Amino acid sequence: MSLLQLNPLAWVHRTLSRLRGSVGLMTIIVFLAGCRSFQQPPANPSFPPHRLAAVNAAIENAIASNRCPGGVFWLERKGSVFNRPYGLQSVQPPESTTLETVYDAASLTKVLATTPALMKLVEKGTLDPEAPVARYLPDFAVNGKETITVRHLLTHSSGLRPSLSGGSWTGRTEALRRALAEIPTQPPGQKHVYSDINFILLGYLIETISGTPLDLFCQKEIFGPLGMTNTGYHPLSRLSLSRIAPTEKQPDGTFLRGTVHDPTANKMGGIAGHAGLFTTAGDTALFCRMLLNEGKLGSVRLFQPTTVRQMTSIQSPEGLPKRGFGWDIDSPYAGPRGAIFQIGSYGHTGWTGTSLWIDPSSSTFVLFFSNRNHPTEAGSIIALRRQLGTLAAEAVGLGVTSTQLTQ
User: Fold this and answer.
1) Domain with 285 in it: what CATH number?
2) Is residue 43 assigned to a domain?
3) What is the distance between the alpha carbons of residues 41 and 125, in angstroms, rounded to a whole number?
4) The total number of structural domains that make up the chain
5) 108, CA 20 to 30 Å: which among 74, 141, 335, 357?
6) At what angle do helices 8-18 and 21-33 cross, to 10 degrees?
7) Domain that holds residue 134
8) Model confidence over 148-181: pLDDT tens digits?
9) Distance between CA atoms of 232 and 213, rounded to whole angstroms?
10) DSSP for 164-209, written as a single string
C-alpha cells in the first residue's frame, strides 16, 4: 500500500519538500481539492466493506494515472445504496466532484432520451417498430433504404455508416438532409455497425410523429414525470455553470462546459437523438429504478411492463451482437457488464466517460459518471468500466461464495 493511501497528510508533507514553485503548488491544490476520495469508504451494512474498498481503489488508481480527473460511482440494489464522488470535476480550475455534478451524457442520450421517447410513441400506437422508416420519413426511401425498418435503426443493424463524417457542414437541417440521403454500406440485418446516424434519424422520427421538438417531448414525457430535474438538453438554460463538469480543451484555451462535446450534436445546435443530453448520477438512478420496477417509479407509471421488456430484451437479428431496442446486452461495447453480470442484464456507455449497467436478475444497477476527456482526450476508462462492473456484481454477492462475501 502506498504512502498516499496510508497517510495522505504525510504524502502532502513529502511532496511539498520535493517540489518547489508553481508546479508543486498546483499539485498540492489539485490533490487537496480531491483528497476526500482517498478516505476509507463509509460503512454500508448492505455491501461488504472490502468490496467497496476495492471500488475505491480502482477509481483512485484511475485518477492517479490520469485516466479521468474524477467521477461519481453509484451502486444500488433493492433500496440499498452506495454512492460517492471522487476526485475533481474540473482540473483547470480545480473543483471537487460532488454527487450533484452534471455530466455530458454523450451516447447515454440514446437510452435515456431517444429510446424511451420512441417507446412512448409505440405505446400510444402512433409508431410501429417493424415498419419501414420511410413510412414516417418518406425522403428516406432513396439509395436502397426502402426496406430499413425502425427496428434496424434501434438495434444498429441498418447498414448505415457510424457517423456523418466528412465534408464541411453545419446546422440541424443539413444534418437531417445528409442522414436521409445516406447510402447503406450493406443490406439491413446483415451486420452490426454502431451508428449515430441511426439515432439522429430516430430523433427526427420522434419529432415528425409527435409534432414536438425532441428536447420538449423528452421533458414532458420522461424527465418531468420521473422528477429528473437536472436532466435535459442545453443545461445552461436552467443549471449553474459551476455544477457542470467541463470536457475537452478548445483551440482558444477554454473548455467546453455546458455545451455538448459530440461534434455532430454540436453542429446540430446541441439537440440530437444520439447525443446532447446532460444529467447527474442521481437523476439517472431514478430512471434505472423505474426500469427495474417494470416501468413504474413511486406513483408514476411511465411504461407498461411489456414495453420495458421489449426495450431491454434481445431484439437484434440472429447471429449479430445482442442488443435490445437501444440498449446494449452483449456487444463489443458491453464492457460495463464486467465478468459476472449475465446476459439478460443491459446498459450503455458514453464517449465522454459515462456508463450504466442494470441487472434485473439481482435488482442491481451500477453507474459511473466521469469526464474522462477533461482536460484532453487522452483519458480512458474502458478498463475501469469493466473492473467496476465486476466489483459491483461481487458487492451484491454474485460470482462469490457466501464465505467470500463476508470475509
Assistant:
1) 3.40.710.10
2) no
3) 48
4) 1
5) 141
6) 170
7) 103-395
8) 999 999 999 999 999 998 778 999 999 999 999 9
9) 13
10) --SS---SHHHHHHHHHT---SS-TTS-----HHHHHHHHHHHHHH
